[in-house]
Every structure is written in C-alpha cells, then in structure tokens.
RNA sequence: GCGUCCGUAGCUCAGCUGGAUAGAGCACCGGUUUGCGGUACCGGCGGUCAGGGAUUCGAAUUCCUUCGGGCGCACCA
C-alpha cells in the first residue's frame, strides 16, 4: 500500500519521499515533512510549498484529501482505493504481504555444539533466526537454513570423557576423579545408561573407546537438539559437520595464499592486516587445527556454494570472532561484506521477580526444553521475537503463563478468535461479505482497516532491517484496535453487517499471516 | 586498558532512514454496554529519554565526551 503511494510520489518529485504514519489519525493516513527540506532549496516558506504540493493532488483518485498543515502534507486515502486494496488482500489469502524479492541467502543459526541440550540463550537465536527465515521466504528470497555441527576438536574428546565418568560415577557407583572441565547434566547419565545396555559396562571403563562413544553420543545429542527445535517449530534444511570438511584442508590453505604464514612451527592467519587485533593461530605446533580452522574451511565451502548473501546468527559472546572470519573470507578471495553477522544478546530469567533456578542436576544452565514446558512454545517464540536481539533481556516466566491481556499472545489470539466467532454467527454468506464495498466507514473502522492493510510493509521493514520485533509489535497494536472496535461497534444484525465482516476478515487475515510468520498458529477458538 | 552492545515511567520493553503532544504492558487507583465471548474496553497516577556539549528550522533519534551496566579480548569451542 505504502509502495503504491510511494511510487506515485516518486514520479512527482523524482526522488524517494519520506512517508510516515502520523500518530494522530485525524491528520490522515500518511504524511510527509518534505516541504521542510525543500524550503531551503526553493527559498520559500515550508507552509507555502506544502500548500502548493497539496493542491496539486486534487485530481488523484488514490486520495480523498491531501492537505497541508503547518508545513506537513497529509494524505488521506480514498475509500475506493482502500476497498480495492482490501479485496486484493483477501483474494491473496495467506500470500498477503508476500513479494517477489530475488536473491539466495544462506542463513546459519543455532549451531550449538552437540555436547548437550539447548539452553535458553540458544532458544533466542533459534527463534530470531527462524523468524527471519519465515519473513525472508515470505518476501520471496530463496533461503537455506543451515546448522553447523562442531563434531571435531576438544569438545568431542571432552564429551567422551564426561560420558564415561558420569556412567562410572552415577551408574556403577565408582568414585572417579573429575577433570577440571567436563560436561554434566541429566542427559549424560541417560546416555550412560544406554551405553551400558548397548555396549556393556566395560565400555565405560575402556579409555580406548572414548572416541567411539563420543561420536555415538554426539549423534544422539544432535537428535535431541533437533527434537527440541521441532518443539518450537524450528526446522533446518541442511546440517554441515565440521569433521567432514577437513579433507578440503590442503586445498583451502593453498587458496589462502599469502593470507597464512608459518612461524615457530605453527600456522597463522594474517587477520591483523584486515582489522583484527592480532594474527591468529590456525594450526598448533602439534598439528591440531584450532576452532578457527574449521570455520575457515566451512566459510570457504559456503562461498563456493555461491549464494548471493550470507547471514550468521551468533551469540553475543562471539562478537570478537567476526573480524577474523571476515579476514579469512577476504584472503580466500571473496567479498566479506556479503557475510552479515547478527548477534543475539544474553538472556536471563526471572520467576516472580526472583532469578529462576533450574534443577541441580542440570547444573546452572537453564534448559530451553524446561522453559517450553513451563510456558509453551508459542509464548516462548512470541517473547523472544518481540525483543530486539541486540539488547540483553530479562523476562519473567510467571507473566507468560497468564491467560489475559497481560500476556500478548493470548490478547492477539483472542482478537482472531473473536472475529471467527462473528463470522460463524453471521447468516451472511461469504459471497455476500466479499462482494460488499467498504464505503461510508466510521473513523474507527477506517483506522482499523488501514492498520490491517499495513502488514506488507511491516513484514518488509522487519526483514530488511533485521528487526523481527516489528511484527509482534504490529500485531499487538492491531489486536488492540480490534478489541476496541469490537467493544464500540455492534456488528451482527446491523445493516452494515456484511461490510464490517469484510473489514474484520482483513484484520483476521493480517493477524493470522503475522502469527504464522512468527511460527505461531492462529486460533479460531480459545 | 581495548573492542562491542546497551542506558527511555517503580518493573519489562517499544519508539532511533532527525519531524506534529515521548508510547505500550505490568504494578497501583477508579470506572464500563442490559450489544455479537468481560480472556474485553475506558480513565487516572507515573518521564531531566543517564549527565554534559555539538550539528539545525527541529534531537530520545546523528556526532563528541563523561558516568553506569552486559558481553568479549585463547594455540577453548
């Protein structure tokens, strides 16, 4: 809708015009302060310019009024335009707000190590990534959702050790000496039990079998992670294992050329040439590659697959890592600006105002599955999607368990359900409703319709600015307008019934579409 | 110390391509239709947009600076 208005204005002014939504709807649907910026150029007062521009729109069919007020130019869309647009939206169903954007994107997110279940911080990245995925796909981008599995290196060795020790300690009752670093948690003793039934007790004591057990456990844990993600409606297209990439090693190193050098028996990358604090070790003296090595071959592989753009969603604790990965990409001969790294900040939980402690067995980590069990997948998704991901976040579990207006997800679902109830109560046929014309609407009805029709620009704005929270914000506002309208306006049995229901169908469509882009299904009944 | 993200109502957060009177939910106080789901609606209370400076018609929004907080600063992942 805004695009159509914008296109018209662009023709007129030969440049992009800033269009904003006035806070006070009595000013119209859109407004622009363009007269202020033209004032200097034209050496006239903003008010005179605005007046002149406004009158030049008198003939336009798109607007019922264009007025200048204190230098602003306010546009009021005509009813015929709004009605036509509403019909167009309804005929597109769940494709409303979709677009034909071109371009392929490789979106990597979550990528949690397969050494334990997902915690609450992973959940934020998962929800944010999946929301961007849904928004981008709705807009037409060809996006691949990828999970990078760190199935090589120290953490896998550590997993094998931890598994054996946990089994010997909790199942066999042996007293064991714990190393400085090891994994712990209920999942490990569950896995140890399985080890005993599958491989026998001896497998827990045989150090030569650590690697074998670790790789076995890694697959089991990854399956657990996939299951946890499915529970919040997050799915990946591809999984790339770090270990599988190392046969490319020599070729990739050759490709890096002057970007790497040898010193004291180690291999370094010249990342300090490209903005990093200092050069980084890629291969240690004993020949073992570092974590960065895996990421170098992984990113080489990504770029060889030839996407137009790359997005990585990382936890904020990885932000120091961006410079070196980008340096590697440049040395490999690719355009590192094609990689966009989005950071999701830390999460902490409150329960009734107190820090939320999980079971002792799970250690200090707050498991995502525990939170899902407490508040449900929808509330979790909505909560994470509603916050900018670059702000550290605290939230209270109890608030999200409530089922009233204090819990936005119920508030929005209830708005959708109310509309469905009205539709089913009405004796009007769908044809009758759809063929009615939205004219003679009250100011409230007009405002509600306009809000509902804004969905497409909200989706585009949210995706392009990478600010997923714009969608939930919009849905809250739209639901609020619906509830107020419902309270103020009698619908069933009035002479306006058909056209008001058409209006409400547009609202329901936007709510349903918006929710589905958040991975949440709209409810017809509560 | 360096880098980075942040600082908006008592709390949790929106608003930040510079624009009209700074918003919402929670909390607290008080109201509401003989009308389709009261899981709703309305009103009140509550602000030095952390402090200071700069830019300009105009700053919560841009820039500089001080203060305060989170997260990094590995041959760990």
Keywords:
single chain; 526 residues; alpha/beta; Rossmann fold; Isoleucyl-tRNA Synthetase, Domain 1; 3-stranded antiparallel sheet; 21 helices; globular; RNA-binding
Helix content: 40-55%
Strand content: 5-15%
The CATH architecture of the largest domain: 3-Layer(aba) Sandwich
CATH topology of the largest domain: Rossmann fold
Record field, number of beta strands = 14
Structure, explained:
With 526 residues, the protein is α/β, with parallel strands linked by helices. It folds into three domains: 2-77, Gyrase A, domain 2; 110-400, HUPs (Rossmann fold, 3-Layer(aba) Sandwich); 404-517, Isoleucyl-tRNA Synthetase, Domain 1 (Orthogonal Bundle). It is 49% helix and 13% strand. It is built from 21 helices and 14 strands. The strands form four sheets. A five-stranded parallel beta sheet has the order 6-5-4-10-11, with helices on one face. The protein has a three-stranded antiparallel beta sheet with strand order 1-3-2. The protein has a three-stranded antiparallel beta sheet with strand order 7-8-9. Helix 5 links the parallel strand 4 and strand 5 (142-149). Helix 6 (154-171) crosses helix 7, helix 16 (408-425) packs across helix 20 (470-488) and helix 20 runs antiparallel to helix 21 (497-517). The mean pLDDT is 89.
């Amino acid at each position: 809708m805004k695009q159509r208005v914008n296109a018209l204005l662009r023709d007129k002014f030969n440049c992009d015009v800033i269009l904003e939504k006035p806070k006070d709807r009595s000013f119209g649907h859109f407004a622009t302060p363009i007269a202020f910026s033209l004032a200097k150029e034209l050496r006239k007062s903003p008010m005179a310019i605005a007046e002149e521009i406004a009158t030049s729109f008198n003939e336009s069919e798109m607007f019922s009024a264009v007025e200048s007020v204190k230098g602003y130019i306010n546009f009021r869309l005509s009813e015929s335009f709004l009605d036509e647009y509403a019909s167009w939206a309804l005929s597109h169903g769940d494709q409303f707000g979709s677009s034909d954007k071109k371009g392929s994107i490789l979106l990597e997110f979550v990528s949690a190590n397969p050494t334990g279940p997902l915690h609450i911080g992973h959940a934020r990245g998962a929800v944010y990534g999946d929301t961007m995925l849904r928004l981008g796909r709705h807009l037409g981008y060809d996006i691949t959702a990828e999970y990078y599995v760190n199935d090589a290196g120290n953490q896998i060795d550590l997993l094998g050790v931890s598994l054996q020790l946990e089994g010997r300690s909790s199942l066999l009752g042996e007293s064991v000496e714990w190393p400085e670093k090891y994994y712990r948690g209920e999942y490990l003793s569950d896995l140890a039990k399985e080890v005993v039934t599958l491989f026998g007790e001896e497998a827990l004591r045989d150090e030569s079998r650590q690697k074998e057990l670790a790789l076995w456990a890694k697959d089991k844990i990854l399956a657990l992670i996939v299951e946890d993600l499915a529970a919040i409606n997050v799915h990946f297209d591809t999984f790339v294992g770090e270990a599988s990439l190392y046969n490319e090693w020599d070729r990739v190193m050759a490709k890096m050329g002057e970007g790497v050098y040898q010193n004291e028996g180690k291999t370094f990358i010249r990342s300090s040439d490209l903005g990093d604090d200092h050069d980084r070790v890629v291969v240690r003296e004993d020949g073992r590659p570092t974590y960065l090595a895996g990421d170098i071959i992984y990113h080489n592989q990504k770029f060889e697959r030839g996407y137009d753009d790359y997005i990585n969603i990382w936890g904020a604790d990885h932000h120091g890592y961006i410079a070196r990965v980008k340096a590697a990409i440049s040395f490999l001969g690719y355009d590192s600006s094609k990689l966009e790294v989005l950071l999701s900040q830390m999460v902490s939980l409150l329960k009734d105002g107190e820090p939320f402690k999980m079971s002792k067995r799970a250690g200090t980590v707050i498991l995502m599955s525990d939170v899902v069990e407490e508040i449900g997948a929808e509330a979790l998704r909505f909560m994470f999607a509603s916050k900018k991901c670059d702000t550290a976040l605290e939230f209270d579990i109890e608030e999200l368990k409530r089922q009233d207006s204090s819990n936005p997800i119920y508030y929005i679902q209830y708005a959708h359900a109310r509309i469905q109830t009205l539709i089913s109560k009405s004796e009007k046929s769908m044809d009758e409703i759809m063929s009615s014309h939205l004219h003679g609407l009250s100011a409230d009805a007009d405002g509600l319709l306009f809000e509902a029709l804004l969905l497409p620009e909200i989706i585009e704005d949210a995706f392009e600015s990478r600010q997923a929270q714009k969608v939930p914000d919009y849905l809250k506002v739209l639901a609020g307008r619906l509830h107020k309208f419902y309270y103020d306006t009698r619908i069933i049995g009035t002479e306006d019934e058909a056209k008001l229901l058409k209006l409400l169908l547009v609202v329901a469509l936007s709510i349903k579409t918006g929710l589905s882009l958040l991975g949440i299904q709209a409810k017809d009944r509560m």
